[in-house]
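User: Quick sanity check before I run a bigger batch. Here is a single chain. Can you write out its predicted 3D structure?
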Amino acid sequence: MSTLTTEARDVRALRVNGTRLWDALMTLAQIGGTAKGGVCRLALTDLDRQGRDLVVGWAREAGMSVTVDQIGNVFMRRPGRNNALPPIMTGSHIDTQPTGGKFDGNYGVLAGLEVVRTLNDAGIETEAPIEVAFWTNEEGSRFVPVMMGSGVFAKAFSLEHAYAAKDVDGLTVKDELQRIGYIGDEVPGQHPVGAYFEAHIEQGPVLEDHGITIGVVEAVLGIRWYDCTVTGMEAHAGPTPMGLRRDALQAATRIMQEVVAVAMRHQPHGRGTVGMVQVHPNSRNVIPGRVTFSMDLRNVSNELLDQMDAEIRAYAARVAAETGLQVDIREVSHYPAVPFEAGCVQAVREAAAQLGYSSMPCVSGAGHDAVYVARLAPAGMVFVPCKDGISHNEIEDADPAHLEAGCNVLMHAMLDRAGVVG
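Assistant: Done. Predicted structure follows.
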């Protein structure tokens, strides 16, 4: 016989309005909508201001108060019974890639708004406040660094550094924040966070490939970027015998293949990619004398990344010794792996099970604002499938039923942390 109270049973039966969530996504997508059905709404443009104004207006209609900090992060709060408690927060971003889609980032913000609307409809009071945030310049399309607002919030880099960033026209972040009216008074990072959950499309094909509705995100992959330069000697392609060549490209391709091989040895989460190659002198009948290429290594823990790093360096040294060519590897960027807090991960897992949705543990291969917020507070993420795993593309798409399911999981995970009065 169940011992659940009436209030507990009522809350467990609570579901969001999927149609309202979809309508909000489609309405926001009209701001900066493209002919191919995507969205171009770059950070701190007039279109970004229109998007911000729309979402803030919806929040105020839902009875939420709004705070803006000095880097333009926006926090929309639904009060709790005990407003001295730090808020249980959700959110993401509403800026897009130049050829972006309707769901990347936008889903996380509007799913949070739908949680609040659903709680309002049901007359449910939480013990702690609920907040929905959207972070400035997550995409990094117009200004670098990426994940700027959450990065400043987490003190990953300074406000002054962010303010000074310029776009291709020489316009600064600070000037553009002032121009669109979203430079607030609150010092970034002085806004309390009790726990943070972020809902997002997966941006990859794994959930769809497995026929799974909810991804329980356990971590964000660590990333190491390198530039590798192999130096040989240019020579004429005709007169130079094969055995007497100092062909930089042939040595480089061996290392490029090893980048993939290293990742294959460190499954299931190892990733290895060569995405940029520059060949000098890049002439049809000249043996390449210098090749520079990128290496992108990723894995779920810093220890595994260290192993991958050691293996690729050892292999490159062996190629250099065997060929007599010079091989230089320079690390140009390093983002540590981010494991999410076990309690938040469990809240997402249990919410999916309670709601009857299929789920699987997964990792994020892309960066999200949750990466930086996790430095300050317990954090977790909810993934839902996207069609063909495609994102950062105007044809980005998602099933409304999956978006609704992810929002339901988000709501119940947040309620697990916020507490329900009753």
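The chain has a mean pLDDT of 96.

User: Great, the batch can go ahead then.
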